[in-house]
């Protein structure tokens, strides 16, 4: 099946059952996968990092979780980065101009590396969780 970065693949009960059966046979950590070649059927080892990713996806399917895979370009426009961060573009530009998020210019346009934007999104999420936990602990003190 040909796929693009926008294809949606739905998981059914058979997929979930197969994922559960596979997970029951794998070690909890350090699952190692191989791939068979089309021509000879020879086993090709999958690198550890990619094996960990595959195991994570299989485990999510086994637990009946929703799995979303999205291809992203290496660089983002400020509009796309702001949308990914859940910020307005002017707020993003203030962060860029303050040096809080790395960026570079392509001609007169500002571009951000996707990895930097994802790091900022994770850091923002951690700050939100910390603030929430602090509020919760203050409420528990009452």
Account of the 3D structure:
The protein has 142 residues and is mainly alpha-helical. It has five helices and five strands; from the N terminus they run H-E-E-H-E-H-H-E-E-H. It has a three-stranded antiparallel sheet. The chain has a two-stranded antiparallel sheet with strand order 1-2. A hairpin with a 2-residue loop joins strand 4 and strand 5. Helix 1 packs across helix 2 and helix 3 packs across helix 4. The longest helix is centred in the C-terminal third of the chain and has 28 residues. The model has no long low-confidence stretch (mean pLDDT 88).
The main β sheet shows up as: 3 strands, antiparallel
Strand content: 5-15%
Q: For the largest beta sheet, what order do the strands appear in spatially?
A: 3-5-4
Using only C-alpha atoms, the radius of gyration works out to 21 Å
Helices and strands, in order, run as HEEHEHHEEH
Q: What is the average of the pLDDT values? A: 88
What shape does the CA trace take? extended
Distance between the termini: 58 Å
Residues in helix, %: 40-55%
- The overall strand count is 5
**What structural category arises from helix and sheet content?**
mainly alpha
Instruction: Determine the number of helices (DSSP H or I, runs of at least 4 residues).
Output: 5
Low-confidence stretches: none
């Amino acid at each position: 099946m040909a796929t693009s970065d926008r294809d949606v693949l739905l998981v059914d009960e058979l997929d979930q059952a197969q994922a559960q059966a596979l997970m029951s046979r794998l070690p909890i950590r350090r699952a190692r996968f191989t791939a068979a070649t089309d021509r000879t059927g020879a086993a090709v080892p999958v690198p550890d990092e990619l094996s960990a990713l595959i195991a994570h996806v299989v485990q999510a399917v086994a637990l009946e979780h929703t799995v979303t895979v999205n291809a992203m370009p290496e660089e983002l426009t400020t509009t796309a980065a702001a949308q990914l961060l859940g910020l307005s573009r002017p707020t993003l530009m203030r962060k860029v101009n303050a040096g809080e998020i790395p960026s570079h210019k392509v001609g007169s346009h500002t571009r951000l590396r996707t990895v930097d934007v994802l790091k900022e999104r994770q850091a923002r999420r951690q700050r939100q969780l910390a603030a929430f936990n602090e509020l919760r602990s203050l409420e528990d003190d009452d």
